[in-house]
Write a structure and sequence with these properties.
Strand content: 15-25%
Structural class: alpha+beta
Protein name: F-box domain-containing protein
Organism: Favolaschia claudopus
Largest sheet: 8 strands, antiparallel, barrel
Number of strands: 15
């Protein structure tokens, strides 16, 4: 019996068995060009869907679109992979390279588990290509920007993909020269908060009575007035959809901290152990060891489906509830002032110290009786100001009760413990937390209160020292259910430029 006389089903089975998981389906392409019989039997929407599922992960939300779009989507992806395999030659066509980065970014952000898609990008050589791009092209245009790297789609996508394709083994395999070069290139995005804000809608005003009562101050870098809405692009993905441009500062912080974790800090030899000293007077040897070994930035898994899979929602309910630990890097304050007052990018950007962070958070959710209309101008819903934080509340068995500052009515917030509810019914999210022992005794006790801005998922936490040593404000985003990343600063006054800002990376403790 010849293949020409075989049924369509048998032909499909034989072809799928012969085709490997990596690279384009060359066997299929050769067969459909062989003769009209094979073309009619194998160049069909059903076969295209089967081929796509063989090569890429198919998210649940696009399975119904697969027969109609599989061929076009598969062609788009393999053209991008082919471009990456050209190496640095692909940098010459800037527009095509940027389009290919969008294809790779959507492949990784739209699907879990993403191991299959990662394997294709590894086959195309994208991770070493991104390192080469950072070294050769990240600073393109910086000469016309006073030496500061630009924030554009290409740079943002390259940094985001470098993080999404990183693993513990790949970062440790980098030579010291490559690691230092990566950290040097992305350091401005990490430390220069006055040039690279985390959010287009900052929503950080705590000192004003009204969210519109904003102090506007200027530096030689830019005017700190009301920011513009977040940028997004129309990209091809099983048709067309709008996708937010990834945040260069957020992904730079993640890439920076994971490389910082590789460096072995100098251990303070004067510290004693718990058994030798009492009462507790600060960090001991065990505390510093825990900081060095456990307060590390974890990579996003490729082969697992998280408890809260990716979606188009800006924030997944219950994500913050739990224990978090990590660290922050504080810039040299004198250097930071110099950066603020000099238009030219500095030759080096130094940091003063790295500090551990330990917090335990509980999320409380208020549900709307009617849908809430979002207002990007003030970063709040129709009834809730995301910039104002409650100072007191009454604890109940399954939540807290807060008196609304505007309506004077009492609002009940239910505990959120990780179970996702319909996002459109959520009116407000309040966060409360503290630093627990033994970390509070070692590094200082803190109380925290905050809010989540539902329009874009911005998390704002006010952290107050129990010992009266000051108050700082944390602002950041959850890049994944296990990573909370951003910056903190002293308690701000409106939109005034901060005298300093420190980058932080926190990971959830399972």
């Amino acid at each position: 019996m010849s293949l020409l006389s075989a049924s369509t089903e048998i032909l499909r089975d034989v072809l799928l068995y012969a085709i490997g998981p990596i690279g384009p389906p060359q066997e299929w392409f050769n067969l459909v060009l062989c003769c009209k019989t094979f073309y009619r039997q194998l160049d069909t929407p059903v076969m295209h869907a089967l081929l796509f599922a063989k090569k890429f992960h198919v998210p649940l939300d696009v399975q119904h679109l697969l027969p109609a779009h599989a061929k076009t989507e598969m062609k788009r992806r393999f053209l991008a992979l082919k471009l990456f395999r050209r190496g640095e030659l692909c940098f010459k066509d800037h527009a095509s390279f940027t389009d290919a980065l969008w294809v790779a970014y959507v492949m990784l952000r739209a699907a879990e588990p993403r191991q299959t898609n990662v394997d294709q990008l590894l086959w195309a050589g994208l991770p070493p290509l991104l390192l080469l791009f950072l070294k050769q092209r990240l600073n393109d245009g910086a000469e016309k920007n006073h030496g500061w790297p630009l924030v554009n789609d290409t740079n943002s996508l390259a940094i985001a993909l470098m993080w999404l394709l990183s693993s513990e083994s790949s970062v440790r395999a980098e030579s010291p020269a490559i690691r230092d070069a990566v950290m040097e290139r992305i350091r401005p995005y990490v430390l220069a908060a006055f040039r690279y804000p985390l959010a287009s809608l900052q929503g950080e005003c705590f000192g004003s009575n009204s969210p519109l009562d904003l102090t506007i101050s200027r530096t030689i870098h830019e005017g700190y007035s009301m920011p513009s809405p977040p940028q997004s692009r129309e990209v091809a993905y099983f048709g067309s959809r709008r996708v937010d441009v990834p945040s260069a500062p957020i992904y730079s912080i993640l890439c920076y901290f994971t490389r910082l974790d590789i460096l072995t800090p100098m251990f303070p030899v004067h510290l004693s152990s718990r058994a030798q000293t009492a009462p507790r007077t600060g960090p001991r040897r065990e505390d510093v060891e825990h900081f060095i070994n456990d307060c590390r930035t974890r990579f996003e898994p490729w082969d697992l489906v998280t408890k809260n899979p990716r979606s188009d929602e800006s924030y997944l309910l219950g994500s913050l509830t739990g224990r978090w630990q990590g660290s922050s890097i504080v810039p040299c304050l004198n250097s930071y002032r110099h950066w603020l007052n000099d238009a030219e990018a500095p030759e080096t950007m130094d940091t003063f110290c790295r500090q551990p962070l330990y917090i335990t958070l509980q999320e409380y959710v208020s549900y709307a009786e009617a849908p809430v209309v979002s207002d990007h101008k003030v970063g709040r819903g129709k009834q809730v100001d995301a910039c104002q934080l409650p100072s007191t509340w009454v604890e109940k068995e399954d939540g807290i009760e807060i008196q609304d500052e505007y309506s004077k009515r009492r609002r009940f917030y239910r505990k959120a413990g990780g179970k996702s509810s319909r996002q459109e019914t959520v009116d407000d999210i309040i966060i409360a937390g503290q630093t627990d022992d033994p970390y509070a005794s070692a590094w200082g006790a803190f109380k925290l209160v905050g809010r989540v801005r539902l329009t874009d998922g911005l998390i704002v936490l006010k952290r107050e020292s129990v010992a009266g040593l000051g108050t700082t404000v944390f602002r950041g985003y959850m890049s994944s259910p296990q990573n909370f990343v951003g910056r903190y600063r002293a308690l701000p006054k409106g939109y005034e430029v901060a005298e300093w800002e420190a980058a932080f990376s926190l990971c959830k403790v399972n």
